[in-house]
Amino acid sequence: MKILILTIGSRGDVQPYVALGKGLKAAGHEVTLATCERFREFIEDHGLTYGHISDDLMKIVDSDEGKALMEDTTNIVRTVSAMIRMRRQVAPLQRQAIEDSWAVAQEFMPELVIFHPKAVLGPAIGEKLGIPCILASPIPMIVPTGEFPCVGFADLGLGGWYNRLGYSIVNFFIKVSAGKDVRAWREATNTPVKRVNLDYLADQDGNTIPALHAISEHVLPRPGDWPRTAIMSGYWFLDAEDDWRPSRELSDFLSGGSPPIYVGFGSMAGRNPERLAAAVIGALQKTGQRGLLASGWGGLSASDLPDNVFMIDQAPHDWLFPQVAAVVHHGGAGSTAAGLRAGKPTLVCPFFADQPFWGKTVRRLGAGPEPIPQKQVTADKLANVFDQLIYNERMRERAAAIGERLRSEDGVATAVSFVENIAERTAQPTKAA
């Protein structure tokens, strides 16, 4: 079966889909993964065929304005406001991403489409080619449930009606923000224009679109009110290649004392990474702990660091995290999953979007303390929490137990089986484009 995977976003929006693509390829399927150009080499290095989507949309996120807006999107109201303010800049870039997605589909002619929520053309490609499509997401924010609030909405304890309302609002704004561009694509490709041109929950015939979530039920139980076509497969981990080796300096640091606390914020360090770096180093000095800092600290170099702190550009989380005492990060879905699988106590310092949600989830599991929003990070606050991460035995036991459960799962295998079952149930002759 020929499978097209569409995803747009940061490294965290791409890496799990590479893992899924490799699993599908190992199962005998032909896979093309289409995403932003910056990830071409990463995808091809993992043996998958790359499909081009312009990098321009991500350049907006990388800009100073994009960073400023992201730092202010700590709840759904601010998120929507930020989307509206950026609409003029984003709209032409989104249209280009739509055109690129369709060009890849025309060239590859897939038999099934798997799409990230940011890849808005996914359902329309399925409709145009007469093939099944599957929503695939690392965040539970599209399929409604009354059991917990949608990502970005505060838990006000108002019950199922309020929780479901959040999902309705999110799906409404998806249609508003991208529906016009999908409609324009329909007109340009002689695809029938409908009253609703973009819907992640149902196709144009009213059939429920299957939804695959790269989340473990040990972390977030599957809602009982979801349709049977929506599952949580477990995480899609992309483990390090067998031939990966750390630098001698990193190996020497790890073996040269007690396990360090890992601190890294992925591709996000905000507009003032120097402030965060100073707070982290100050907290390590106050507590006497060793620290391992991932890159992204605004020009900070190794010569600026005290002896108990070491900086790395990157290292595979599945190799590194088992060797540290605790992990501190921004709360991206992938980083959260990696820290929990390693069985390490976790502190989340969220910037925006789903990150506060994962921070509170870690706290609910007992695997970490209350999250500290990145704007509130200080050396004193971190020092207090670092002591909890190291010395709170109950927290460490809970983290270890969750890690053991996650290591027993194979989320990719479950996802591959789900995709194959959907394809089998919906098999039909391919229509001409």
TrEMBL record:
<protein>
    <submittedName>
        <fullName>Glycosyltransferase</fullName>
    </submittedName>
</protein>
<feature type="domain" description="Erythromycin biosynthesis protein CIII-like C-terminal">
    <location>
        <begin position="303"/>
        <end position="405"/>
    </location>
</feature>
<dbReference type="InterPro" id="IPR010610">
    <property type="entry name" value="EryCIII-like_C"/>
</dbReference>
<dbReference type="InterPro" id="IPR004276">
    <property type="entry name" value="GlycoTrans_28_N"/>
</dbReference>
<dbReference type="InterPro" id="IPR050426">
    <property type="entry name" value="Glycosyltransferase_28"/>
</dbReference>
<dbReference type="Pfam" id="PF06722">
    <property type="entry name" value="EryCIII-like_C"/>
</dbReference>
<dbReference type="InterPro" id="IPR002213">
    <property type="entry name" value="UDP_glucos_trans"/>
</dbReference>
<dbReference type="Pfam" id="PF03033">
    <property type="entry name" value="Glyco_transf_28"/>
</dbReference>
<feature type="domain" description="Glycosyltransferase family 28 N-terminal">
    <location>
        <begin position="3"/>
        <end position="140"/>
    </location>
</feature>
